[in-house]
Amino acid sequence: MVRAIGAQEIAPTRHAWAIEATALKVKAGRHLAVDGLDLALGTGVHGLLGPNGAGKSTLMRALATVVRPNGGTLRLLGTDAARTRELRRTRGRLGYLPQQFGYYPRFTVRDYVEYMAWLREMPASAVPAAAQRAIERVRLADRADKRLKSLSGGMLRRAGIAQAIVNEPDLLLLDEPTVGLDPEQRVEFRELIRELGTEACVLVSTHLVEDVVAACSDVVLMDLGKLVHQGVPADLVRLGENGGVGDSPAERGYSYLLAQHRGGAR
Amino acid sequence: MSRFVPLYLRSRRVPAAVAASAGAIAAVAAAWAGMTKDAQVNTGLTVLTAALAAVPFAPTLAGNDAALEKTAALPWPPRRVLHLVACGVLVAGLLIAARLVGTDFGPEKALVRNAAGLIGLIGLGTALAGARHAWQVPLAWAAVQCLLQVPGGPGWRQVALWMIQPPENRIGAITAGAFLAAGVIGYALRVGPPVSAAEASLEQ
């Protein structure tokens, strides 16, 4: 089927970075979870690492326009995230998988993905094909017409990924997408995000250092709401030679960087 | 767009809410018919029935994932207003329709006033406290009015007992209108207090 191409799709990109944050401050409740973060991310797959409570999920929520920044500036696909009125178009080009997501349990996978596509204001005629494609990409085609409540944890996670990629987003935010996936699915998932990362800015928050090394072109490490390190995964491996605890070079690099940062902070 | 309206209604559990609302009215009507010969339902019971018919719609005012709904591109406020007003129309319509099966819940004017005020209170409750708790105030208030059936008196008492005032009463109508306006505006702007990331999955 031939699809009409909208003006929006061929419009030139007018922003240097998909995500551009300067001195970003975001609160989670009363706690300042993201505290003066500077970050610029473009096309590619970026892994967001950090210990529990580092502010990863809060940062993701701010990037997904769920919460408004409490300070600093945040530009998403060239639009200022503080200007709620202008965010509508940006939101249509955004995909987001929360760490825990709510859903109507009696929806089938297809219903759910189509409904989310509609919320992202996809043209109605494009929705069925886009939903089918998203479901195929996460390898749930054989379960497409099963109800969500009948799915296992890993399948549900993949349904969540399907809704996040259904609109072919320019900015894709995945908060711990590999939780509950078996090793084979994780390898498939890495392939999928590598493919998506060729055209979009994909930010994957995770605790699994090996996922980042295997699938990401860029590593962002944060702790206590601040940026600790930004570089390529090979940096982690290289830094791992300096010491740090862990079973793989990358894990040692991760813990070494955190220890360095905490030492410096004191 | 029309393809997605059924998905929206299902995800908000509207069919179940309509069934619960109609069921409440039917139960009261059946009980009344079984116990009295009078077709005209007692005013206090009318008020309570209106509340029982309105509260099932409270949970439909919030989605299954507040974060994902908030990131949606489509503008929510007009849709929320439409949803809330449609709930009010449905409650009033169901109460008036009970006449077709022989139970009279009182004059239309009073039914419309009460349905509008109750839906407004539910919308306001959703905006301030979240959809899960929005049923409490309207139901409790209606229960109090069901027991204190003394229309008239000083202005403040007419405001407090707005649902049991006669249909022509101005203060009752203004009170209901104010609740409807506050509910529609409040719900258009806000759906409950912000939900933290950890609570998101508990919303369903």
TrEMBL record, chain A:
Residues 19-249 form the ABC transporter domain. CDD domains: ABC_drug_resistance_like. PANTHER family: ABC TRANSPORTER, ATP-BINDING PROTEIN. Keywords: ATP-binding, Nucleotide-binding, Transport. The lineage of its organism: Bacteria, Bacillati, Actinomycetota, Actinomycetes, Micromonosporales. Coiled coil: none annotated. This is ABC transporter ATP-binding protein. It comes from Virgisporangium aliadipatigenens. GO terms for molecular function: ATP binding; ATP hydrolysis activity. Belongs to the ABC transporter superfamily. Gene3D superfamilies: P-loop containing nucleotide triphosphate hydrolases. It holds the Pfam family ABC_tran.
Automatic annotation (TrEMBL), chain B:
It comes from the Bacteria. Keywords: Membrane, Transmembrane, Transmembrane helix. The keyword Membrane applies. The chain crosses the membrane at residues 14-33, 45-62, 82-102, 114-135, 171-189. This is Uncharacterized protein. It comes from Virgisporangium aliadipatigenens.
